[in-house]
Specification:
alpha/beta, ten-stranded mixed sheet, 24% helix, Rossmann fold, single chain
Length: 306
């Protein structure tokens, strides 16, 4: 698989500009493509694109889909953005890096064709449900390049800040198998006034709807969402839960090259939960797990997660 994926590197070099035509193997569709950070550091070089049958969403995916099949399908990350932005402009390095490691990433919001700060309407929680519906439809559509190439049994719902609240709002969906809540957590009555208008505001009782393992990835005590996220983590006792902190504040490392430290931990979580990798599990499992030895990171686990 690695050899075939690396062939995509050569294809990327021919693009030369940020918006390019689709490869000949794809059905001809007038959509935008961008190559982010040379396709990421993973074995399957990725592109950022869009789909005409999924408006207000951005897709990050391996360029070469020929290596995927029903026997080797793509796990899925469904993502919601910070600040309720209706574009993943702030997270494109992070999401592209994840896709380059063999994931189909469907992010809320229009494809960012420039690097300018997003200004526009807020995103909505139901866009994550639209992402899930689209993934299932694509896998069943013989005309789709993703036909029978998506791992519908391994889907993570995730998001940052407002996107994390959207993910918690949608956490009961039976189609998901993992959660990743980044720089986020449910507000309680004492600090609900800090919420931005338009954010979903489930009560803490919503945590009972979580039916999958969940990772809270926070920016340390300087993260404005630290109190909310850690309070969520302490309350969750019915499913495996992990809280990790890296002292960078609310903004995380998403805009750093290849998503910075947050992408390293996110990919390990996804590889463990969606690809069931024992090697990835060592990042989190055990008293001397690898994350506990990683500079500046801290980790806490509930009683269901050792």
């Amino acid at each position: 698989m690695r050899k075939i994926c690396l062939l995509a590197c050569l294809m990327l070099a021919s693009f030369g500009v940020s918006t390019v035509a689709q490869p000949a193997a794809e059905p001809a569709r007038p959509v935008s493509w961008r190559v982010i950070e040379e396709g990421g550091t993973g074995p399957c070089k990725a592109v950022m694109t869009e789909s005409l049958d999924l408006p207000e969403h951005t897709v990050f995916r391996p360029l070469d889909l020929t290596v995927f099949s029903a026997g080797n399908p793509l796990p899925v990350l469904v993502w919601g953005n910070g600040a309720c932005a209706n574009s993943p402009f702030e997270h494109k390095n992070f999401l592209n890096e994840i896709a380059s490691h063999g994931y189909l990433v469907v992010a809320t919001g229009n494809i960012p064709l420039t690097d300018e700060w997003y200004k526009g309407p807020m995103s909505r929680s139901e866009q994550q449900i639209q992402s899930l519906d689209w993934v299932f439809a694509q896998n069943a559509d013989p005309q789709s390049p993703f036909y029978q190439k998506i791992d519908l049994q391994n889907i993570c719902l995730a998001g940052m800040s407002c996107g994390g609240l959207q993910s918690l709002f949608n956490c009961a969906d039976p189609r998901i198998s993992a959660l990743m809540i980044c720089n986020s957590g449910l507000f309680n009555q004492q600090n609900a006034h800090q919420a931005v208008g338009g954010m979903p505001m489930p009560q803490k009782e919503k945590l009972k709807d979580i039916h999958t393992p969940v990772l809270y990835m926070l920016g340390g005590e300087e993260d404005i969402a630290y109190g909310n996220g850690m309070d969520d983590f302490q309350r969750i006792q019915h499913v495996p839960a992990i809280a990790v902190n890296y002292p960078v504040g609310h903004g995380g490392t998403y805009l750093q090259p290849h998503g910075g430290e947050f992408s390293v931990i996110a990919i390990a979580w996804l590889d463990w939960q969606l690809k069931h990798s024992p090697k990835a599990a060592r990042m989190f499992v055990g008293k001397n797990c690898l994350l506990s030895k990683r500079d500046k990171w801290t980790i806490q686990k509930n009683g269901l997660q050792k």
